[in-house]
Amino acid sequence: MNARAELPLHAPGTQVDKGYIGQSVPRPNAKRLLQGRGAFVDDLRFPRLAHVVFFRSPHAHAKVKKLDLTKAARQPGVIACFDGRAVAEYCTPWVAVLGHLKGIKSAAQYAIAIERACWQGEAVAAIVAETREQGEDALAHVVAEWEELPVVTDMEDALSNRYVIHPDLGDNVCFKRELDTGGVDDVFAKADVVVEETYLFGRHTGVCLEPRAILADYNAAEHSLTVYHSTQAPNMMQDIFSRHLGIPEANVRVICKDVGGSYGIKVHVYADEMATAAISVMLRRPVKFIADRLESFLTDIHAREHKATVRLACTRSGEILAFDLDDLTAIGPYSVYPRTSGIEGNQVVNLTGGPYKHQKYRAKMHVVFTNKNLTCQYRAVGHPIAVALTEGIVDLAAAKIGMDPAEFRRRNLIADDAYPYTFPSGIKFEKLSHHKCLDRLLALIDYKGLRAEQAELRKTGVQRGIGLAAMIEVTNPSPAFYGVGGARISAQDGATLRLEPTGMVTVLCSVTEQGQGTEGIFAQIAASALGVTMDKVRVITGDTAVTPYGGGTWASRGAGIGGEAVLQAGRALRSNILDIAAVVLEMDKAELDIVNNEIVNRLSLESKLALAELGRIAYFRPDTLPVKFQAELTVTRHYTPREYGFTFTNGIQASYVEVDPDTGFVKLLKHWCVEDCGTLINPMLVDEQIRGGVVQGIGAALFEECVYDDAGQLLNGTLADYLVPMSGEMPDIVVAHVETPTKQSQLGAKGAGEAGTAGAPGAVMNAINDALVPFGARVTAQPFTPERILKALNKV
Amino acid sequence: MEATIQTTITVNGAAVTRAVPARQHLIDFLRETLGLNGSHVGCEHGVCGACTIRVDGEIVRGCLILAVQAHGRKVDTIEGLSDSGEIADLQECFHQHNALQCGFCTPGMLLAAHDLMRTKPRATREEIREYMAGNYCRCTGYHAIVDAIEEALARRGQVARARAGAKT
């Protein structure tokens, strides 16, 4: 019988012409998670495992006058206590700068602070005990005396250099950037219309439900270190453990099993995690650190905290002429290693005004040090800032000339046939689809109908608003992101595919999985490229001793880069399999194909040889093959995007809200996103990336903020006080797609993981402000809490 | 030495007796002492719902109850509910809708959803959102979770109607 693949052989709109591409296949690896049979770091059990807890500074900025650990060391179950000096003997400090961020500077950061703590929560001592409870009990017996130092918490205060946090650096400016196309002042002077507004973005954080987790196991006999780590970038961490702990890289193995959420939070080097690894070396035994939720709020990287003033010049007929930006952002006392904390501000400069076709652009941006927790790259890095201030000022301009905001965007979005296109900030777009996305969105939301409903309800005192936010998104970064700046962060990824003797296929890939579904789409791609069914494919990721070398998962790169490596390896393996089949069957290779786990005659689809039989012959009876023929059933391929610095994607979001002018509460009625991530490998997984991202963006817009007082004390560092979106107040989110595959790869996939977070805050802000139009009020400071809305309405 | 109390709990149908530290939370007892790692610890202050388990048929937060308080009671965890097949339909709907990403919140989410299905078999979408508001998910944005529970409710409703039809 001729076995036929159950799924369509040709998926439309892609260069991948077979199998599972474009199918919403459920993720195979979700099954273990659904039964509670995953393996997160805290689930692992080791003999002689010691637990480390940290004594953290209660002050935002203070000198350690005295630190006495002797009493703590005598507590039941305590194995050892270490201060910063002791750990520094085993772990060298780091300074997080990048060569291509000209002038960026930071101070040396130690695994455990020595002499001085620069933010509330910075660790100054470690206690290692037989159980975590015993370690935590012993914390109460640490004797510390502090001399409080001046505290800098306000960004503008930091920029004024009233008090310099690191005197050796000369000032509080970590990084600054200026960009000017020229002619901006002239355009603004002559423009019909100029609008200006200042936007504030609260500091928030990722709140991964699985807190940061690391288990380091040093083997003194081999001078080797195995680290089980809840991380996004195992090879990056392997390199860093090696260099800072003085262990040859080949002796460091980083294993990344299930990761309970990451969103960028787990792609950074954390001092307490480096200390944990060092302590494993010092004690020659496995040591585990699991951050508790309170530590997470104090030490997981925060993000955003920007104050940006933006001006827009346009003609009376609605043509945008220029953008002028001044952005200020604060990052805490250190730039975060190794990606630096200069990237978010840098992205705001790159991306502001990004969807539009104006030619004049000027930007000024400062990144300053403060005595709060560190900030660094969190999902959509810089995009939520750039999109919100671009789309906020665009709405303001449209209102000023009395033009519908959708029409104003239509007139200014870069035309769909204008590519390749260079934006005034210097970034290059291969091919975007702003107008297709706008048209699709307006049809999807029935824009005219929605406006009519809004007008009708307004008469009855119901205040609803519609907000739009067009966006561009950085995905599939080339080495231009980090590598050129000297960071040992891989922009390439690799995939190894192996046909097993049983006809099963094993995929090993350097891109990691934190729930996005990367392993699932790799199985889809591998199965499609080879002509096997997905149940024949097993995917392994997250082990530096096993997988090819690569960057891991960040910057929406998993599908576009890792997926392409899997595709290329799959196509090469398919060719190798057909070589063997041609020899075994004594047929011409061109006559053969692989369909549904069998070698078939390409034209008649007649079954010729099962892959399991081919595997048996190749592995166990190669004596039956010609003497000079060697079967190669393991293939590795790598892929690096290089033609463009980034593979930009685009999209547009809409938010529909109802604002209660008496309470200031915002009810999210519905949210829509149309985006273009190129080839859709698994539409369901893409939709879920978008939806999850949108809700994190909504969190930023409405709820989430790490609130510090003037003394640098975090005021809401519990999950009861820091609000994250819950199911009750979230809307249904409708997602639709336009597919413009990138021509840089055979797969054509761009990234999708951050688009939701990039656009949602701007869309929600614009919707709220649209609802507030009858009151002549606007809000521009995120999160848009009831209090802030009532203040805008002059009600409190 | 820390004071311990001899405690007997029926966990997933089997009685276990251990000397339990008086201050130990039930979730830590399940995870650390019994190795039942399926229920997760997300906040340890009763907010996130990742440690949701079932005690005498009611869902509770494993971080807000002491192990000794479970003495003489029946505790069910994701492992037990999975092996018995009690929530197989719900798990299947979660899988089909991709109502999970990282999977850390998922065991707690499933226990809460199962409880919703028991107590509100005709819950609307709005009611599902309201009921599930005590379980945080940071990955999905909840939409797919609501879809999955909606479908599981519809399926159980069909099964119940079919059974009722067969009886008459």
Provide key terms for this protein.
heterodimer, A: 796 residues, alpha+beta, Aldehyde Oxidoreductase, domain 4, Aldehyde Oxidoreductase, domain 3, 7-stranded mixed beta sheet, 23% strand, disordered N terminus, B: 168 residues, Ubiquitin-like (UB roll), DNA polymerase, domain 1, 5-stranded mixed beta sheet, 5 strands
Q: How is this fold's topology laid out?
A:
The complex is a heterodimer of chains A (796) and B (168).
Chain A: H1 30-34, E1 50-56, E2 62-68, H2 70-73, E3 78-83, H3 84-88, E4 116-117, E5 123-129, H4 132-139, E6 143-148, H5 155-160, E7 173-180, H6 184-190, E8 193-205, E9 213-219, E10 224-229, H7 234-245, E11 252-255, H8 271-283, E12 287-290, H9 293-299, E13 302-314, E14 320-330, H10 343-351, E15 360-368, H11 383-401, H12 405-412, E16 421-422, E17 428-429, H13 434-444, H14 447-459, E18 463-473, E19 493-499, E20 505-509, H15 518-530, E21 537-541, H16 558-585, E22 592-595, E23 598-601, E24 607-610, H17 611-620, E25 634-639, E26 649-659, E27 666-676, H18 683-702, E28 733-737, H19 755-771, H20 786-792
Helix pairs in contact in A: 10-11, 11-19, 15-16, 18-19
Chain B: E1 4-11, E2 14-21, H1 26-33, E3 52-55, E4 58-61, E5 74-76, H2 78-84, H3 88-96, H4 106-119, H5 125-131, H6 143-167
Parallel strand pairs in B: 1-5
Antiparallel strand pairs in B: 1-2, 3-4, 3-5
